[in-house]
Amino acid sequence: MSALSVLYLVLSLPIVFILHDAEEVIVQHRWMLAHRESLALRFPKLSPVIEHLSKIGTKAFAIAATEELIVIVIATCYVLIDGIFSTQIWSALFLAFSIHLFIHLGQAILFRGYVPGIVTSLVLLPYSVYGIWSIWLTTNGMEFLLLALCGIVFMIANLKFAHWLGMNF
């Protein structure tokens, strides 16, 4: 990874993550409680997810977000010490984070309004696109898809763990 990529993308990811998750932590619980019933009516197949997210309070969500931040900080530090496969690990996490931002865009379109995380998702869209483009330029198509897939699988597994952690502590 070039020095500029490290400066612009790698070092800024923890800060960008904090910005985005701060928005989610601040509004997620109250927003879910206010919209739980209308969401369940509009998206009945998602009722279990809606119920689960309604039970996650602000403190639990903050604990979950902190766990995810720790993972990102560790990956960022690992790139800085030039660890083995550090660029690939970081890229997989960056792609997962970027996909997460695009998911918020999809949610806002489906909901036809504000959803927690949409404001920072819109603000961070250029950063995310630049990062995706930078990763695309340094990988071949198959490696890029593999990194994205690994990032998504890790994101889903870690999200379940982070929510468990938040709910139990």
Keywords:
7 helices, 169 residues, mainly alpha
Describe the structure.
The chain is mainly α. The protein contains 7 helices and no strands. Helix 2 crosses helix 3, helix 2 runs antiparallel to helix 4 and helix 4 packs antiparallel against helix 5. The radius of gyration is 16 Å and the shape is globular. 30% of the residues are buried.
SSE topology sketch:
Layout: H1 3-10, H2 13-42, H3 47-55, H4 58-80, H5 86-111, H6 118-138, H7 141-168
Helix pairs in contact: 2-3, 2-4, 2-6, 4-5, 4-7, 5-6, 5-7
Roughly how many Å apart are the termini?
Answer: 38 Å
Summed over residues and divided by their number, the pLDDT gives a mean of 94
Instruction: Give the overall form.
Output: globular
Portion in strands: under 5%
The major β-sheet equals: none
Radius of gyration: 16 Å
Query: DSSP helix count?
Result: 7
- What's the order of the H and E elements? HHHHHHH
Tell me the number of strands.
0
Helix content: over 70%
Q: What structural class should be given to the helix and strand makeup?
A: mainly alpha
Uncertain stretches:
none
Give a short synopsis of this structure.
The protein is 86% helix and 0% strand.
